[in-house]
């Protein structure tokens, strides 16, 4: 971010949600969101994003580009046997390379 008044490296956590139901973010794209998070986060601070599965590759590549290492990835499915509807990803600014994965089923019994 180009704003000289922004205090850098002072936040422990940043969370962003961009689901299809939330509509399009006004005035910023995914890279800008991740770049801003990298500017704001303390070393070891976490970024958590909820997004659509189709953007997973972009999420991981952009997080690494801005030194936010993906740490936890959860695929969220409506029910067993269905494709994921959403991904939850958490990364650590300056973190080492280790990724834990999981699947969350919303309606297990249906």
Brief summary:
By secondary structure, this protein is an alpha/beta fold.
SSE series: EHEHEEE
Rg, Å, rounded: 15 Å
Average the pLDDT over all residues and give the rounded result.
84
Counted beta strands: 5
Gross morphology: globular
Span of the ends, CA to CA: 46 Å
Main pleated sheet: 5 strands, mixed
Q: Which stretches of 5+ consecutive residues score pLDDT under 50?
A: none
Structural class: alpha/beta
What oligomeric state is this?
single chain
Q: Figure out the total of helices.
A: 2
Order the strands across the largest sheet as they lie in space.
1-2-4-3-5
State the helicity in percent bands. Answer: 10-25%
**DSSP strand content:** 35-45%
Question: What's the SSE blueprint?
Answer:
Elements lengths: L10 E7 L12 H11 E11 L4 H10 L2 E10 L6 E10 L6 E6 L5
Parallel strand pairs: 1-2, 3-5
Antiparallel strand pairs: 2-4, 3-4
Helix pairs in contact: 1-2
Please tag this protein with its features:
single chain; 110 residues; alpha/beta; five-stranded mixed beta sheet; 40% strand
Give your account of this protein's structure.
By secondary structure, the chain is α/β, with parallel strands linked by helices. Helix content is 19%, strand content 40%. It has helices at residues 30-40, 56-65; strands at 11-17, 41-51, 68-77, 84-93, 100-105. The chain has a five-stranded mixed β-sheet with strand order 1-2-4-3-5. Helix 1 (30-40) runs parallel beside helix 2 (56-65). The longest helix has 11 residues, at 30-40. The chain starts with 10 loop residues before the first strand and ends in a 5-residue tail after the last strand. The mean pLDDT is 84.
